[in-house]
Design goal:
Elements (H helix, E strand, L loop, with lengths): L2 H12 L3 H25 L2 H20 L7 H22 L3 H23 L11 E6 L6 E6 L10
Antiparallel strand pairs: 1-2
């Protein structure tokens, strides 16, 4: 994953509600899946396998976030296991069929959580994050970022 994507995810995480955080994990998993597909298309099986493993770890995070006191969690658990199985199968067989099947499910599930995030009124999960202001200042075509209230203890890495 490119550094710019990592920075984008980090900024989104700092402003996310609980449900938006789930959407971000889906986005990260889909980014790793896209990176895996690109590696597969180039014939780079090492990068392919590494990105599939990273996507599976994201699905593990989604499983860990499940609350089994809610009935739908059992269905989500089954879907997540289906995705993990397909990602593992893609790695073992060194084909992209399992990857494509996993991506389809992840995209469909992501869209559901995007709609749920619109209804989430719980507020931001991380109160002590940095606020980054981006804008055009001091030069034509130059994009500058400023960090407001920088606190070294609030760093987060994707």
């Amino acid at each position: 994953m490119e550094n710019t994507k990592q920075e984008e995810f980090t900024q989104r995480i700092g402003k996310a509600s609980k449900t938006e955080m789930i959407v971000i994990v889906y986005d990260i998993a889909l980014q790793y899946a896209e990176d895996a597909q690109n590696a597969y298309d180039k014939g780079d099986m090492t990068a392919y396998g590494e990105n599939l493993t990273k996507a599976r770890k994201c699905v593990d995070n989604l499983i860990e976030a499940l609350n089994f006191d809610i009935d739908i969690s059992n269905q989500l658990f089954a879907l997540y296991n289906f995705v993990k199985k397909n990602l593992l199968n893609a790695r073992i067989t060194r084909t992209d069929k399992g990857l494509k099947d996993a991506v389809k499910v992840l995209k469909d599930m992501r869209e559901i959580f995007v709609e749920l995030a619109k209804l989430d009124t719980s507020g931001v999960m991380m109160d002590s994050t940095q606020h980054v202001v981006t804008g055009m200042t001091y030069g034509r075509g130059v994009l500058n970022e400023s960090v407001v209230n920088a606190d070294k203890s609030t760093t987060f890495s994707v």
